[in-house]
Design a protein that fits this description.
about 180 residues; mainly alpha
Length: about 180
C-alpha cells in the first residue's frame, strides 16, 4: 500500500509504529468495522432491507407505498403530539406569576417562624390561623396578606397593587 511504499510519515503513523501493544491499531480496526456497518445498513438500505426491517422490528409484512405513507404520517402526528404536550406542560404548569412567587417567598418567611401554610389554605384562612397561634405576628402579617389578596385578584393592568405587595413582602420581618 501507499503507507508501506512511503514509510512512516506524519504523527499518526509514528504513533501507530510506536504502539507496542497494538492498541491504536485495534482502534483503527474497530473504526473500520463501524464504517463498514454504516455503509451496509445506511448507505446500502435497499428495498429488501427495508422489508426485512419492517417485518422483524415492527411486525408488518408486505407493505405498499400507501400503507407506508399512512404509517409515516401517523408516526409524525404522534411524535408531534407528544412533543406539543410536553412543551405545553412546561409552559403552562410550571409558570408562576410574580404575585404567586412573592406570596411563596412570604410563606417561606412565615415557615421559618413556625407557621407553615397548608396547601388548601387561602390567605384569609392563613391570617385567621396566625391570629390564633401567634397573635403578635398577626398584626404585621395582616397588611401583607390583604395586599396579596388585592394584588392577586385585581385586574392585571393594575400594577400598583402588585408593586405595593412585593415591597411589603421584601420588608416583612418576623420579630
Amino acid at each position: 500500500g501507499m503507507n508501506e511504499a512511503l514509510g512512516p510519515q506524519g504523527l499518526l503513523n509514528g504513533l501507530i509504529q510506536a504502539d507496542r501493544f497494538g492498541f491504536l491499531k485495534q482502534v483503527g480496526f474497530t473504526w473500520d468495522a463501524l464504517n463498514n456497518q454504516w455503509n451496509q445498513w445506511v448507505v446500502g438500505f435497499n428495498d429488501e432491507r427495508q422489508r426485512y426491517a419492517f417485518e422483524k422490528f415492527l411486525g408488518i409484512g408486505n407493505m405498499d407505498w400507501r400503507q407506508l405513507a399512512i404509517w409515516l404520517i401517523g408516526a409524525i402526528l404522534a411524535t408531534g403530539g407528544i412533543v406539543s404536550l410536553v412543551l405545553l406542560r412546561k409552559v403552562y404548569v410550571n409558570r408562576k406569576t410574580p404575585v404567586i412567587a412573592a406570596y411563596d417567598r412570604f410563606c417561606v418567611k412565615l415557615a421559618r417562624a413556625g407557621i407553615v401554610r397548608a396547601p388548601n389554605e387561602g390567605p384569609m384562612d392563613l391570617l385567621d390561623r396566625i391570629a390564633r397561634e401567634r397573635p403578635a405576628l398577626a398584626d404585621s402579617a395582616r397588611p401583607v396578606l390583604e395586599a396579596y389578596a388585592a394584588a392577586r385578584y385585581s385586574p392585571p393592568e393594575d400594577g400598583a397593587n402588585l408593586a405595593r405587595f412585593m415591597a411589603m413582602v421584601r420588608g416583612f420581618k418576623i420579630a
